[in-house]
Design goal:
By secondary structure, the protein is mainly alpha-helical. Among the domains are: 28-88, Tetratricopeptide repeat domain (Serine Threonine Protein Phosphatase 5, Tetratricopeptide repeat), CATH 1.25.40.10; 90-183, Methane Monooxygenase Hydroxylase, Chain G, domain 1. Helix content is 72%, strand content 0%. It has helices at 31-41, 45-58, 63-75, 79-86, 96-117, 122-142, 147-272, 278-288, 305-315, 322-331. The longest helix is centred in the middle third of the chain and has 126 residues, at 147-272. The radius of gyration is 76 Å and the shape is rod-shaped.
Length: 341
């Protein structure tokens, strides 16, 4: 975008020839305008625009002041103020080139405002671009040789085409999104349902795993309890068997003690009972007259007939009748005890 070239204000100071006005020749009515032009040249565009507006107080219909004030506002970035000032320049200005340059400046200001609104308000930007094209056409109409206006006109036309294409693409994209939206919604719904089913399946699987784990723990505990119970039963059986063995051993020992005691008592009883019959006396006499191998008073290895008879009689005491016991006692004699009996 080519910049706007300001028109240098040429001020012609009228020389008052009248003698009546010579006394006020020191007053300069264009001092404010010259100060505004100086500030413009120094790049102080805001101050320059303010000075031009101040100069318009004394000369509100000046096309030159409106034009230069509009250019100062444009350079200051105040495009609305620039359009307001440039819009006051009449199209029937006596200077055709100034009219062309004013229209060219209006086109530039419209373009700047459109570019600023393109991102947020594209339709407003298209309207401003169209107004810029109209301003460039007025500039070319006032000055057909103005190459800047022609260049900017082509630039804005291309910008309008690009923006329209962009808006059409966005519209198509939105329509596709709207058409795709039900499908996406259904697809999203299906995905949500599948995800929910997967979560439920995972929960069921986890629940089954937990139940299997609990069942396994219960089985292990039951098996452990059964093993402990079996071990306790084995220990109890073993203790009972040991107890029975001890009782049996005690009973056997008691029976053995009783048998030994009975034998001792029977032996004592046999030693106290007298030997009956002539055969007993004869046996004693024969035993006393025994050979040299027998020692008197010591028991022999073989039981004599008398001893055997005494043993049998001792066992049959309960079966012998009292009259038989008396008869035996009458014929019995008291034997002398052996030494070691």
């Amino acid at each position: 975008m080519k910049a706007v070239v300001p028109v240098v204000v040429v001020l012609v100071v009228a020389v008052l020839a009248a003698s009546a006005a010579s006394a006020a020749s020191w007053i300069d009515p264009h001092a404010t305008a010259r100060s505004a032009s100086k500030l413009y040249d120094e790049g102080k565009f805001a101050d320059s625009a303010a000075k031009y507006r101040e100069a318009l107080v004394d000369d509100p219909d000046s096309a030159l002041l409106h034009y230069n004030g509009g250019l100062a506002s444009y350079r200051d970035g105040k495009y609305d103020d620039a359009l307001a000032a440039l819009g006051a320049v009449p199209s029937s200005d006596a200077d055709p080139k100034r009219t062309a340059r004013a229209a060219y400046a209006v086109g530039n200001a419209k373009y700047r405002l459109g570019a600023a609104a393109e991102a947020s308000k594209p339709q407003d930007a298209l309207k401003l671009y169209a107004e810029a094209l109209m301003a460039y056409r007025r500039a070319m109409g006032a000055d057909p040789a103005d190459e800047d206006a022609k260049f900017n006109h082509e630039l804005v036309e291309k910008r309008i085409a690009d923006l329209k294409k962009k808006l059409e693409d966005q519209k198509k994209e939105q329509e596709q999104k709207q058409d795709q939206k039900p499908q996406d919604q259904q697809q999203q719904k299906d995905q949500d349902q599948q995800q929910q089913q997967d979560q439920q399946q995972q929960q069921q699987n986890q629940q089954q795993k937990d139940e299997q784990k609990d069942q396994q723990q219960a089985d292990d505990q039951q098996k452990k309890d059964e093993q402990q119970q079996q071990q306790q039963q084995k220990d109890q059986a073993k203790d009972q068997q040991q107890q029975e063995q001890q009782q049996q051993q005690q009973a056997d020992q008691q029976q053995k003690d009783q048998d030994e005691q009975a034998k001792d008592e029977q032996a004592k009883e046999q030693g106290k009972q007298p030997q009956a019959g002539d055969e007993g006396e004869k046996d004693d006499q024969q035993q006393a007259e025994a050979g040299d191998d027998d020692v008197a008073g010591e028991p022999t290895d073989e039981m004599s007939q008398r001893e055997a008879q005494a043993l049998l009689d001792g066992q049959r005491d309960q079966e012998v009748r009292p009259d038989e016991i008396i008869k035996r006692l009458d014929h019995a004699r008291v034997a002398e005890p052996r030494e070691d009996w």
